[in-house]
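Hi,

I'm pasting everything inline rather than attaching a file, because the server keeps stripping attachments. The sequence lines come first, and each chain or strand is labelled.
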Amino acid sequence: MSKSMSKRTTNALLNTLTWAVVALSLLPILWMVLSSLRNYSDVASGQQLDGGLTFQWQNYVDMWVNVDFFSYFKNSLVICSITTVLATASATCAAYALARFRFRGSDTVSVGISVTQVIPGMLFFLPLYMLYKNIGESWGMTMLDTYHGLIFLYVALFTPASIWIMRGFFVSIPRELEDAAIIDGCSRFGAFVRIVLPISAPGIIATATFIFLLAWDELFFAWTLTSSSSVQTIPVGIRLFIGQFQQRYDLMMAAATVSTLPVLIAFLVCQRFFVKGLAAGAVKG
Amino acid sequence: MHILPGSIVRKKKFDAFPYLLLIPAVLMMLAVNLTPIIEGFMMSLLKLNQYTLSQYLDAPFVGLDNYRRVLTGEHSPIRAGMTLALRNTVLYTLAVSVLSIVIGLAVAVLLNRNFPGKNLARTLLLLPWIVPSYVVGTLWGFMWQRDVGIINIVLCDWLHLFNERPFWLLGSNSFWAIVIPTVWRGWPVMMLIFLAALQAIPEDQYEAATLDGVSKWKQFLHITLPLLKPIIVIQFMFQIIDNVYSYNIVSMMFGNGAGHPGEWADLLMPLLTRQSFSYWLFGQGAAVSFVMMMIMLIFVGVWMTTFKRSMTSDE
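And the predicted assembly:
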C-alpha cells in the first residue's frame, strides 16, 4: 500500500518536473510575443510586465508598413515556397532511385550525399560567390542578387539531406505493389507516379516541411549573395534593421514574432507526419 | 536492402530509369558542392585580393603562400583573431553538442512515461526548435541586455543572485550567451530522436531486472544506455558537424555585418565571412575553407572508424 503511494508521489513529482521544463522552455517565446505588444518606452526600460492587458498592436503596423517588413516577408515566402516544391521533387526522384535500384554509381552517389553533409556548401561560400559573379559577367545570366540565384542554391543545398529522409520512406513501402502494377501493364514511371507517390504522401509532406523550415532559417547565403531589398529575405531584413534601429526592441520583437508564425503554422499543420518521419529516419540512421 | 528481383535479370541491359531519376539531384550537387571545392582549391593557390579579384582564376599564382599566411600569421587580416575563433568554435561545439544530447536524453526519459497531456507536452517542447535561429539570436540578444534584459531582471531584481548586473554580451560571459540559446533551440530535436528510440525498446528488456530488484537508475545505465549507444554516437557526430558551421545566432546577436562578437563569442564562420568581405582577401579565405574541410573530413573519418562497431551493431 505504502509502496504504491510512494510510486504515485514519484509520478506526480515527475509530472510536475515535466511541465516545469515545458514552461521554462516556452518562456523566451512568450517574452518575445509580450515585448512585441508593449510600447517603445516600456520595452526600452524592461517594464513589459507592467501595462496589463493594453496591447500595442500599432508595433505590428509600424513594422509591417514603415520598416517595409512586408517586402522581406514576401521575398521569403516566394523563395522558400518555390525551393520547397523543387527540392522535394528532386529529392523524391533521387531517393526512389536509391531505394529501389541497384546500379553502377549508386554507392558513389550515396557517399557524395554524405560528404555534402560533412562539408556543406556554406564552407565554400567564396568560390560560390565568385562562380555566381562570373556566370553573370561572362554568360550574361545574373545569379547574384536574384530570386532564381538564391532558389537554385537552396534547392541544391537542401536536396541531399532530404534524399535520406525520403529514402527511408520508400524502403518501408512493400515493392509488391509496384510489381503488381507493372504486371497490370503500368510503366515503371507510371507505377512510381500512380502507386508509390500517393502512398508516400506522409513522407513527402514531412520532407517538404523539413525543407521549408531549413529554407526559412537560411541567413548565410541570403546575406552574402543578395544586396537589394527587392530580393532580400526576412533574416537579412532583421539584421539590417538591428544595424539601423539598435534600440527599437519593440519593433524587432514584432518582426521576430511575425517571422516565426509561418514556420510555426507549417509545423503545427504537418507535425503528425513530420515528427514521426523525423524520429523514424534518425533512429534508423 | 530492397532490390527488385527483376533488376538482377535486367542488369545485363543498361537501365536508364534510375539515372534519369537522379539527374536533377546529382547535377545540382556537382554545381553547388563539387565545383566550388575544386574552384576553391584553385583560388587558394592564387593571389586574389581587391586588385586581382576581377581576373578571377587568371590572378597571379602564389602556390601555398595563402596557406602559409593563414596558418603562421604574417599580418594577414584573415588570420587575425583566427586562433580565438578556433578556440571558441571548438569549445562552443563541444558544449552545445554535449548539453543538447544530455538534456535531450534526460527529458526524453521524463517523457517516456504515461501521463495526461503527454503528446501536448512533446509538441510544446519542440516549439523552441521551430523558432528560426536568426530569431533566436535576436531574441536572446535582447534578453541578455544588461539593463533592460529579462535575464538580469530575473537574476538581479527578483532572485538577488548578483549585486551588480553582469554584462552578458561582453567578455567571457558572451561565450555562454551564445551557447545557451543554441542549446535551447537544439535539445528538443535530440529529445524527439531519443524518445522514438526509447519507445522502440521492448518492455521485457526491463522486466527481469525489475523482478530482481535492480533500481531504475541502474537499469538506465546498464540496459537503456548501451541500447542507445549507436544513436548517441551518430547524433553526437551530427551535432559536431552542425555546430562547427554555426553562424546565424552569433551574427544576429552581435548586430549587423560590422558588429564584432568579441574575443569570446566569435566563431569561425562569422569571422571568415566578415574578414573575407571586409578585406576582399578571397585567396586566403579559400585557403581557410580548405583547411577546415580537411579537419572535418579527418574528424568524421576518425569518428567513424573508432565507433564503426557500435554504429553498425544494431543492424
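The two ends of chain A are 44 Å apart (CA to CA).

If the labels don't parse on your end, tell me and I'll reformat.
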